[in-house]
Amino acid sequence: MRAAVLTEFGTPLTVQTVPDPVLGTGEVVVDVVAAGVLPYAAEVFSGERSYALTLPVVPGAGAVGRVRAVGPDATRLAVGDWVSVDPTVRSRDGGPTPDITLQGLSGRGDGGLRLQRHFGHGSYAEQVLAPTENVHPLGPIDPAEAGRWCALRLCLVPFGGLLAGDLRPGETVLISGATGNFGSAGVAVALALGAGCVVAPGRDERMLAALADRFGPRVRTVRLCGDEDDDRRRMRAAAPGPIDLVLDLLPPAAPATAVRAAAMTVREFGRVVLMGGVGMLGGADLALPYPWLMRDSITVRGQWMYPQEANLRLINLARSGLLDLDAFEVTEFGLDAVNRAVAHAAETGGRFRLTVVRP
Known about the structure:
The chain has helices at 41-46, 109-119, 151-164, 181-192, 205-215, 228-238, 256-263, 290-295, 310-320, 338-348; strands spanning 2-5, 14-17, 27-37, 63-70, 82-85, 88-90, 100-102, 106-107, 127-131, 135-137, 172-176, 197-202, 219-223, 243-248, 266-274, 299-302, 329-334, 353-358.
């Protein structure tokens, strides 16, 4: 098959002919129709993000496609089914703490790197091999819309955070990083889950205005000034009442003070979920006051990615129309233009814009 290969960090991807995936028990081979390109993919491929990725590798995290072949233990999937491929591969022998690799993107620890030896290659290819439990039926879709369904991969990250924070219908949630790629998708997912109000802080005035225009009065935008105490007051004032949940999705370049300003807006007995990248590339760590945590009975939780069952739950949200995938603008590139796709993703910066490779 043809695939885009990263042979060395800091060099362009090259389209090569590589061996077809070899099907085994507990596995599915999928013909890739569309694969999303992350806005920070160029930072991964350059080595700037220092992701644990064994080279050479076919990158690409997740895909939409059609089943080519299934293993002998698959009883529901059939050849030709439209499916979404989840790149979050978990070791099957890890019990409650499985090792994880993000297929075609990164691994976590030594166990994640071991998983990469078998499931390392991603979706910038004509075919991808995935564990059976990572292949989720979409039902019939228009082939022309396959790229739009790649929005599921983007929405799954904030969905995982909202599930971890136990967002309940009618509650007020503040999404820190709401003008970013994952954060803006998180606004859409929170509303689809029934949030009464989403407080959306940020510094990009045009994006804040776009969020308000897109979603209406259930979204309250806040222009941040960079002063921690003042920003905290502004965010609290924007909410119609107490803030029940804060979800942080700020990127690695954001300061820890911005995370703290948002986190400390939450009400007594409130919940804070940390999913962003602050501190991953150096810089100050997050410090939260012990007396505030204790006296206000605050729950703070870290969440990496999402539980496996989130895939079908999110597909159902999209199928029902509660999560509108038509909100995403899709730009598609062929496999031979994969480097242009990576550059385009970096330039457009996400925010309801999808860059997609169609092998």
